[in-house]
């Protein structure tokens, strides 16, 4: 390759620190550099095309290269690049807040913007704490979340995250994070393994048991994703959310729907809670709200939760400089215009069955144990033995996922995620504009690479 290519590689390896990445893995090999995006595809420095089967990182809902969003951002930067939401408003933040409130379920009429998902998750915890202190229940501070669930990396969000391995190096974390079982039906305890509804009742009742164990007067909120990402796409079992909602109501605990991934069409609806028909007290969002054209996150809050902050000297004592940035807000509005113009939610709903059916062809491979998900969001769990559901040892998982799969899938032109933070899974979350030709490509690449992987075990 050219001298420019070599210089870029050298500078990247010398100066850039990649997130959640073993930097040593690039010491003897090329660091992938993505330079351009177009629709559901991205291109690297060499001009090689990849299908973006993960929407970047569950972000690029409308696909890449949308000039109308770029132009909306440029217009806003020229008009008013920045002003804070501390004591002031700006028109795009107002317009976006109203639009999101209109789209959100029930009385989630108030938007508190952030710049990221972690900040949104942490803001919701801070709001819950201050709300309860303001309304005479100062001992409520604990938050429940599911085992293996990912809710972000800042210290507060990390205390809610249920992945032990990414928490240890940063302990002690803020007090109050409590784990409950996740909703992986494929690995359900044997006494509920043959009945999804019984499994859902049990998993929801585990939340009640945790509330009682901790002391209901100490519990502020339960954080749940509509469809849990980490661990490989666990949809809620039937009846789960209805039961969780009534448990939260019984003990006066807030239900936070963490929709950083599941909002904005990922499951065929603007919000995942709509798809699974439950009413949260708070929705946290980020990622797809701008399709990644600029950073933005936030929380949608119920009328009841803002009410104590609407009179006298009451103030939510929290804020961040770039939250609700005018350029991000303008780009989010342009993004939502595309959702409407192209009816992307209908596209997902019309094609999600075909997506599932195409992926389910992979069940004929011995390594494919479970394929699960909804909408345009699927996980494929790999096993060593289909009949017993035996999973891989740590060494095999290391050799299979890190040593082979991730690179082989990428080399074959597919961006997706091979993840072993729970049991080993491959995750797919393509842009919402995708259709059958893209599903077929994903299936073909996976078939070929998983067949090779099986031969290497
Ligand atoms: C459910 C969920 N919550 C929170 C976060 C944190 O978002 P961010 O990386 O924008 O801080 C993520 C990120 O993937 C997420 O999936």
Structural notes for this entry:
Helix 7 (196-214) runs parallel beside helix 8 and helix 12 (344-360) runs parallel beside helix 14. The strands form three sheets. A seven-stranded mixed sheet has the order 4-10-9-8-7-5-6, sandwiched between helices. Strands 1-2-3-13 form a four-stranded mixed sheet. It has a four-stranded antiparallel sheet with strand order 11-12-15-14. Helix 8 (240-251) links the parallel strand 7 (219-224) and strand 8. The radius of gyration is 22 Å and the shape is globular. The longest helix has 21 residues, at 436-456. It has helices at 3-15, 55-58, 67-79, 91-103, 117-134, 155-160, 196-214, 240-251, 272-275, 303-306, 326-341, 344-360, 394-411, 436-456, and strands at 34-38, 41-44, 49-52, 108-114, 142-146, 177-180, 219-224, 254-258, 282-285, 297-302, 368-374, 377-382, 414-415, 417-419, 425-428. With 457 residues, the chain is α/β, with parallel strands linked by helices. Bound molecules: pyridoxal-5'-phosphate. The site of pyridoxal-5'-phosphate has 14 residues, from helix 5. Pyridoxal-5'-phosphate binds next to helix 5.
């Amino acid at each position: 390759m050219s001298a420019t290519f070599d210089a870029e590689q050298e500078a990247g390896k010398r100066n850039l620190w990649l997130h959640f990445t073993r930097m040593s893995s690039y010491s003897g090999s090329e660091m992938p550099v993505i330079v351009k995006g177009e629709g559901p595809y991205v291109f690297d420095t060499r001009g090689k095309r990849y299908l973006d089967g993960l929407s970047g990182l569950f972000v690029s809902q409308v696909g890449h290269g949308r000039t109308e969003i770029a132009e909306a951002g440029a217009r806003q930067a020229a008009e008013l690049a920045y002003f804070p939401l501390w004591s002031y408003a700006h028109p795009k933040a107002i317009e976006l807040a109203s639009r999101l409130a209109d789209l959100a379920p029930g009385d989630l009429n108030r938007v508190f913007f952030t710049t990221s998902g972690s900040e949104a998750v942490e803001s919701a915890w801070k709001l819950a704490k201050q709300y309860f202190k303001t309304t005479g229940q100062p001992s409520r501070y604990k938050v429940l979340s599911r085992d293996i669930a990912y809710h972000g990396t800042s210290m507060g969000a990390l205390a809610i995250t249920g992945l032990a391995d990414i928490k240890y190096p940063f302990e002690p974390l803020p007090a109050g994070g409590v784990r409950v079982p996740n909703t992986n039906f494929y690995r359900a305890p044997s006494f509920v393994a043959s009945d999804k509804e019984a499994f859902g009742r049990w998993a929801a009742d585990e939340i009640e048991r945790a509330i009682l164990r901790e002391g209901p007067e100490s519990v502020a909120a339960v954080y749940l994703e509509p469809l849990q990402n980490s661990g490989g796409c666990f949809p809620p079992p039937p009846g789960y959310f209805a039961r969780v909602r009534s448990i939260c109501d019984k003990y006066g605990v807030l239900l936070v729907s963490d929709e950083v991934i599941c909002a904005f069409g990922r499951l065929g609806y603007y919000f995942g809670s709509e798809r699974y028909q439950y009413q949260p007290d708070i929705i946290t969002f980020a990622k797809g709200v701008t399709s990644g054209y600029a950073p933005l996150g936030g929380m949608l809050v119920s009328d009841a939760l803002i009410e104590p902050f609407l009179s006298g000297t009451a103030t939510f004592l929290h804020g961040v400089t770039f939250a609700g940035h005018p350029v991000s807000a303008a780009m989010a509005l342009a993004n939502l215009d595309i959702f409407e113009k192209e009816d992307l939610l209908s596209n997902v709903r019309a094609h999600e069955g075909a997506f599932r059916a195409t992926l389910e062809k992979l069940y004929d491979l011995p390594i494919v144990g479970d394929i699960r998900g909804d909408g345009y969001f699927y996980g494929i769990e790999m096993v060593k033995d289909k009949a017993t559901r035996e999973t891989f040892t740590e060494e095999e998982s290391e050799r299979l996922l890190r040593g082979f799969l991730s690179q082989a899938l990428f080399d074959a032109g597919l961006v997706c995620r091979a993840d072993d933070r729970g049991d080993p899974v491959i995750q797919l979350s393509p842009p919402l504009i995708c259709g059958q030709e893209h599903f077929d490509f994903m299936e073909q690449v996976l078939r070929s690479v998983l067949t090779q992987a099986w031969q290497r075990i």
